[in-house]
Amino acid sequence: MPDPKTGELRGNRNLNRLAKISQSKQDEEIQRGLELGLEAADSINDRSISLFSRGHLPAFAGINTFMKSRYCENIREVGNYEAAFVGVPFDTGTTYRPGARFGPQAVRRISALYDGYCVDGAVDLFEELDLCDAGDIFVIPGNIEKTFDQVSKGISHVFTSGAFPIIVGGDHSLGYPNVRGVAQNISGNVGIIHFDRHLDTQDIDMDERMHTTPWYWTTNNHESVDHSKAHQHHSHMHDVGLSNCPPKNLVQVGIGGWYGNRPGSEVARDRGTSVITMKDFEELGIQGTASLALELAWKDADAVYLSFDIDSIDPAFAPGTGTPEPGGFMPREALEMVRLIAREGLCAMEVVEVSPPYDVNDNTSQLACRVILDVIGTMVSVGKLGHRDQVIGKS
Questions:
Q1: C-alpha angle with apex 201: 85 to 347, nearest 5 degrees?
Q2: Based on the number of CB atoms within 10 Å of its own CB, is 207 exposed (0-12), middle (13-18) or buried (19 or more)?
Q3: Is 35 exposed, middle or buried (0-12, 13-18, 19+ CB in 10 A)?
Q4: For residue 174, pLDDT beyond 90
């Protein structure tokens, strides 16, 4: 929309804003590539090209890190970065189609397509955010409880270092240990905005904590929960929940369809969580849904965590997932909502249930990558993440 005073288009304003951002990181990458990758053959006219690829280009070459960011091999140094991609390649909690253990690598691979420069968001991530790839947490295939302990310890390490955790699974059972790794380091309450077609609030599925159960356990250790209603004996579980993740601050967006919600419905109803179905979304619209989710998640909370299950997007656009359910969000709807939510700031985020064996042309992995970029790009643009003030010139 043109500016009412100047008549300037938003796109033109964004281009002008982007022109004020320094290009020092670009120059540093070129010099680093030449130093580490050697000078190109004599026939190459562009002398910024190196002999061996050591930067963003070509998109189809090089080592797969997220956005071709630096690999933080020594995880003790993750605090030197402002945000860190963390893979959790675990799908033992899957109850239908496995394959999400390959999600982190697929998202890394397709992320090479992007250079971090966004005209409609007026963001240059490469210049405005110190991003690294922290690699994958060492999960224990076949052992959910030991994996959960590994994940919580790993995410806690990244979070307490000061880097913003960008967590990519893996199946949705990881929602619980992911949040546990963050919430245990926050003194106040933590709200959760959860995009999904399924509630994921039942207590146990096939006698274990599965990808259908993360939010039961996250909100379990709280005064508003009636523990006598649990229909299973939980003594073999390591712990029982998080006291600073109250059910009233759990907001679930996009719920619906014909599968997977029966066991969790009673829990959601009894605990007073907020369930925004696709029908609700159709009535509220994008802005109304995002506003309501923010209001509920942030009420009396000190931080909000974003959990994005890729199956919340209609499988026509995101077929590569374990439990597809038609009737979900269009990509543009989902991306606009996460941008609106990210404007208020987040303590961490996760994208889960990307299952590459069922994907088509990397469409699902690419959408997962876009969710991440739109979230962190928005946070950079509003000053919640990164260092825009250090790289943008004065008008």
A1: 30
A2: exposed
A3: exposed
A4: yes
Distance of CA 366 to the CA centre of its chain: 13
pLDDT of 394 above 60 = no
Rounded to 10 deg, the angle between the 363-381 and 331-342 helix axes is 30
Side chain identity at 159, as an amino acid letter? F
Q: H-helix or E-strand containing 11?
A: helix 10-19
114 CB-near residues (< 8 Å, 6+ apart): 67, 369, 373
- Show the tokens assigned to 113: 């397509």
Domain locations along the chain: 1-55, 62-225+241-391
- Is 284:261 a contact under the CB 8 Å cutoff? no
- What's the DSSP call for residue 21? B
Pairwise CA distance, residues 318 & 363, whole Å: 6
Q: 117-118 and 303-309: which strand pairing? A: unpaired
Please give the Cα distance from 132 to 390 (Å, whole number).
19
Of 172, 137, 175, 173, residue with least CA distance to 157: 137
The CATH class, in words, for 62-225+241-391 is alpha beta
Calculate the alpha carbon distances from 107 to 35, 104, 170, 202, 338 in Å.
29, 5, 11, 29, 18
321: left (phi over 0), alpha (psi -120 to 50) or beta: beta
Work out the average pLDDT over 322-335: 97
Q: Which residue has the higher pLDDT, 32 or 349?
A: 349
What angle (nearest 5°) sits at the alpha carbon of residue 115, between those of residues 113 and 117? 130
The confidence band for 14, taking pLDDT boundaries of 50, 70 and 90, is confident
- Alpha carbons 248 and 253: distance in angstroms, whole number: 14
Q: CB–CB of 179/190 below 8 Å?
A: yes
